[in-house]
Amino acid sequence: MPFGEVATILNTIGEIPISVSSIWRRVAVWGPKCQALEATQRALSLATPTGEELNQTVPLDGQDLGVAMDGGMVHLREEGWKELKVGCVFAIRQQPTRDKHTGEIVDLAHAVANTYVAHLGGPSVFGDLLWAEARHRHWMQARETVVLGDGASWIWNLAADKFFTSRQVVDWYHAKLHLTQAATALHGEGTAARRWLRDHETPLLQGHAERLAGTLRQLAQKYPRCADALRREAGYFQDNYRRMQYLEMREEGFPIGSGMVESACKQFRARLAGSGMHSSRAGLERLLPIRTAIMSHRFDELWQQAYHLPLN
User: Is 250 in contact with 170 (CB distance < 8 Å)?
Assistant: First the structure.
């Protein structure tokens, strides 16, 4: 919570009077201890052979795991808006779900037991953090693994570096958004655009993104007024068509949406980039491991480890 809310709740419910500045000082002490733990775990993951366990409980035999990546903007004092990279590691479980396309109740893959990492900076350190968390979740012992993301190149570069044996899937809703943008470029807002979108949505779901890219290039030649937009969308589908085998992936028991990490970005922004909030870089970075532990349901574990760290 924001420090002011914490002070009010402690005073109202617990009858513990404490100033906002005192809470800030507590975070200034314990935040760096949590950051030190995070750095130690990251270094251990990079130094440990990939087949060696990290003293964690091995997952059930046959469990499938996934990671999803995204970015959200936070506002820093003296720096402006910067991207906070967020990662989610999750187990995959089949659950009865109403199919939005057919209306039938079918078993679909869902992300469960989500845990998170976040980093204010470039993809290199973020990739190490995410890999450390994946190792913590016994990524190497999983039956199958998948990486989910939008079309951002840094996500797929990182996937190729850290998760090179995993399946890759572009988030279905991002793909549909690009299809919508193509429809709008062609027909503007209205019935014609909705009809075009409906006609091409099913082929996209069935895995025909490469064919769709060809269709858009042909339309770009036919309609010069929107040729640039159509070629741009054609390039998106061409570059990612191998990651858009949606029907195949769903039938094999994998999720095709990255809502789990998009939700996480919203939760980080709610605490760190709410209306009127302006954090320093150091202050925000101190909060990240604490916020991550709370969202991952690991705060008690983090506190015990941080509290018993040896004095420097």
Answer: no
Could you identify the residue written with the tokens 């995070």?
Answer: 38
Two tokens at 128? Answer: 């190490």
Cα separation, 95 vs 249, whole angstroms: 15
Percent of the chain with pLDDT over 70: 94
Between the alpha carbon of residue 36 and those of residues 11, 128, 168, 172, the distances in Å are 31, 15, 32, 37
DSSP state at residue 166: S
Helices (H), 188-226: 191-205, 209-222
Contact 289, 31 (CB under 8 A): yes
Rounded CA separation 53/276 (Å): 44
| pTM of the complete model | 0.85
pLDDT score, position 101: 66
* Distance separating alpha carbons of residues 211 and 190, to the nearest angstrom: 25
